[in-house]
């Protein structure tokens, strides 16, 4: 699809460039031809005056050199043709390259969209399959009792909650990604935001906080800190130490958990991405969307995030506003 689009785009580039080039060539030829005609006319006038002043027969050498002028016209046409041919070749090569550069971001976006849809479908299919299986098995069980039915409904409700959670994540990512989420910015204290976010967990954090005012959206920043804390908890051993610092315009969240492999670090903010270590070494209740949402919040605040990690020793997330 994109190869055909690239060819068509190249053809349009060529059409526009050649139309401009041929127009300029036409203007140049008309201008030069008018100048040659003026010279030719001037020569004829000069010779007529000479003839009128000198009654001697007109010599052939005194006549306008029509052949030379015609040859000049031919050379001009040939030169312009060669120039336009060269422009055609160079424009074709350049246009094909430029069309590739133009379409590459679109192709990348389409690939990301396809991958996103595929991953979202996969994540939604899991709870849906669980729902269908449980319901089908229960319907075939003629001796299904009230207690079993209640357990079934509780399990189904949990699957529905998971799907609802995923849907909310996807909607939030879409709003943050396309800029449709209108955030109200004001001066907020990171210390208070960290304390507020920490209250959502039944975990004791090592808080090393100092008053730190930044300009941002309080709700989004609370969610950002919540995501980073949740991530630290998930990839730490039970009861493991987690340090949270605020200093100046910097927020740091450090855990001493399983760490992130070097080859996974460039992808941790990708949607639905979860490192192999997170899949194999710990049980994680998530969709690989938390850090992607965090990155979007950071970008919306024009802040920067730095990740340092070593396998088996832990990870440090540093956000600078």
What does this protein structure show overall?
This protein is an alpha+beta fold and 321 residues long. It has two domains: 110 residues; 135 residues, Histidine kinase-like ATPase, C-terminal domain (Heat Shock Protein 90, 2-Layer Sandwich). Helices cover 63% and strands 12% of the residues. It has seven helices and seven strands; from the N terminus they run αααβαββαββααββ. Helix 1 packs antiparallel against helix 2, helix 2 packs antiparallel against helix 3 and helix 5 runs antiparallel to helix 7. The longest helix is centred in the first third of the chain and has 75 residues. The chain is elongated, with a radius of gyration of 37 Å. The relative contact order is 0.07.
Feature tags:
321 residues; alpha+beta; Heat Shock Protein 90; 2 domains; five-stranded mixed β-sheet; 7 helices; elongated
């Amino acid at each position: 699809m994109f190869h055909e689009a690239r060819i068509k785009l190249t053809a349009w580039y060529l059409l526009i460039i050649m139309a401009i080039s041929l127009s300029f060539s036409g203007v140049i030829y008309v201008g030069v031809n008018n100048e040659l005609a003026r010279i030719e006319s001037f020569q004829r006038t000069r010779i007529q005056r000479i003839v009128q002043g000198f009654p001697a027969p007109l010599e052939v050498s005194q006549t306008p050199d029509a052949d030379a002028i015609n040859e000049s016209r031919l050379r001009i046409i040939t030169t312009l043709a060669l120039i336009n041919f060269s422009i055609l070749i160079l424009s074709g090569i350049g246009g094909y390259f430029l069309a590739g550069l133009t379409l590459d971001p679109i192709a990348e976006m389409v690939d990301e969209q396809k991958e996103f849809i595929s991953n979202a479908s996969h994540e939604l299919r899991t709870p849906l399959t669980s729902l269908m299986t449980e319901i089908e098995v229960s319907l075939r069980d003629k001796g299904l009792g009230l207690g079993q039915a209640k357990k079934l409904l509780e399990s189904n409700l949990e699957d529905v909650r998971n799907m609802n959670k995923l849907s909310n994540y996807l909607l939030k990512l879409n709003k943050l990604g396309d800029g449709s989420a209108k955030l109200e910015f004001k001066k907020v204290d990171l210390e208070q935001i960290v304390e507020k976010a920490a209250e959502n967990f039944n975990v004791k954090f090592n808080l090393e906080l100092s008053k730190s005012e930044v300009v941002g959206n309080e709700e989004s920043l609370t969610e950002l800190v919540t995501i980073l804390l949740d991530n630290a908890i998930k990839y730490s051993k039970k009861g493991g130490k987690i340090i949270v610092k605020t200093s100046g315009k910097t927020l740091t969240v450090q855990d001493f958990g399983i760490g992130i492999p070097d080859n996974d670090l460039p992808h941790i903010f990708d949607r639905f991405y979860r490192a192999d270590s997170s899949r194999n070494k710990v049980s994680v209740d998530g969709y690989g969307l938390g850090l992607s949402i965090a990155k979007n919040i950071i970008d919306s605040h024009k802040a920067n995030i730095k990740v340092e990690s070593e396998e088996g020793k832990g990870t440090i997330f540093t956000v600078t506003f």
